[in-house]
């Protein structure tokens, strides 16, 4: 059979090799699925509102992979699909990421995260983190924390992505320790550990139940833990503990 010639218009800022590594393809030697993937990738690249520069492709692929992994799971998403959705060829993808494992780690770096408060009194910031957790569950449709299911899917404990998860979780514990110390807790390290476990549990429970009540319960529990640790509570006539926060000086 005669070869098929593909004619395309190169988008500004892109290389023809990025979007169509093979101009002439022979139906007798190239699988139809490969042709379809290349054409789809080519179409997506040429119809981007703002064509990506070569220097932007690596970050773009990682973001697309992060979205797919977060939505459908790591093992359910292959490199072919990531290249297809990103509008690049597998050749371009592997130019930036030597393996799927490397791409998984890069994707985790740009996966959805809970943004902790950066301003305000320590207790307010701690409770604000739990409020952000509740909002995160709601806005992600209870998909939950990527750290939890990345760890669950990656059985190799030496995988770089799992090491990244461990570092991120350690940073969260350190943040709680900094806040509890600033709040004047008698044992800031112990309170930080309790709050971190409470935070993780609320994330996991809210995800499994698809319900915001675990996050709401965690907010109330955090208030009580802080009040007891900081010796800042009064008792009403009904003998209920009512937190009265006394922020540490400075």
Characterise this structure.
It is a single chain. This protein has eleven helices and four strands. Helix 7 (122-139) packs antiparallel against helix 11 (213-229). The longest helix has 23 residues, at 160-182. With 250 residues, the protein is mainly α. It starts with a strand and ends in a 7-residue tail after the last strand. The protein has two domains: 4-109, no CATH class; 122-243, Orthogonal Bundle (Tetracycline Repressor, domain 2).
Jot down its keywords.
single chain; 250 residues; mainly alpha; Tetracycline Repressor, domain 2; two-stranded antiparallel sheet; 11 helices; 4 strands; 4% strand
Q: What is the residue-averaged pLDDT?
A: 81
Q: Kindly give the count of domains.
A: 2
Strand content bin? under 5%
CATH topology assignment of the largest domain? Tetracycline Repressor, domain 2
Counting helices, strands and paired strands, the structural category is: mainly alpha
Q: How many runs of DSSP E, i.e. beta strands?
A: 4
Q: Give the CATH superfamily of the largest domain.
A: Tetracycline Repressor, domain 2
How would you characterize the largest beta sheet? Answer: 2 strands, antiparallel
Uncertain spans, ≥5 residues at pLDDT below 50? 1-34, 234-242, 244-250
- C-alpha Rg (nearest Å): 25 Å
What is the CA-CA span between the terminal residues? 80 Å
The gross shape turns out to be elongated
- Count every helix, treating DSSP H or I runs of 4 or more residues as helices: 11
The sequence of SSEs as H and E is EHEHHHHHHHHHHEE
């Amino acid at each position: 059979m005669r070869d098929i010639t593909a004619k395309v218009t190169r988008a500004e800022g892109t290389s023809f090799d990025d979007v169509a590594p093979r101009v002439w393809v022979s139906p007798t030697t190239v699988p139809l699925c490969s042709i379809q993937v290349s054409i789809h990738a080519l179409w997506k690249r040429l119809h981007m509102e703002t064509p990506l520069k070569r220097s932007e492709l690596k970050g773009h692929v990682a973001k697309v992979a992060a979205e797919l992994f977060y939505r459908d799971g790591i093992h359910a998403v292959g490199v072919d699909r990531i290249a297809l959705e990103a509008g690049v060829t597998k050749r371009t993808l592997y130019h930036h990421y030597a393996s799927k494992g490397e791409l998984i780690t890069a994707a985790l770096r740009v996966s959805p995260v809970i943004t902790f408060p950066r301003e305000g009194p320590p207790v307010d910031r701690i409770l604000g983190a739990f409020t952000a957790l509740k909002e995160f569950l709601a806005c992600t449709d209870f998909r939950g924390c990527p750290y939890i299911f990345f760890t669950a899917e990656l059985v190799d404990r030496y995988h770089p992505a799992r090491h990244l998860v461990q570092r991120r979780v350690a940073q969260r514990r350190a943040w709680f320790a900094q806040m509890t110390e600033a709040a004047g807790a008698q044992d800031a390290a112990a309170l930080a550990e309790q709050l971190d476990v409470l935070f993780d549990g609320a994330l996991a429970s809210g995800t499994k139940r698809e319900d915001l009540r675990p996050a709401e319960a965690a907010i109330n529990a955090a208030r009580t833990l802080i009040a007891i640790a900081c010796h800042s509570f009064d008792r009403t006539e009904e003998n209920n503990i009512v937190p009265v926060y006394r922020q540490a000086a400075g």
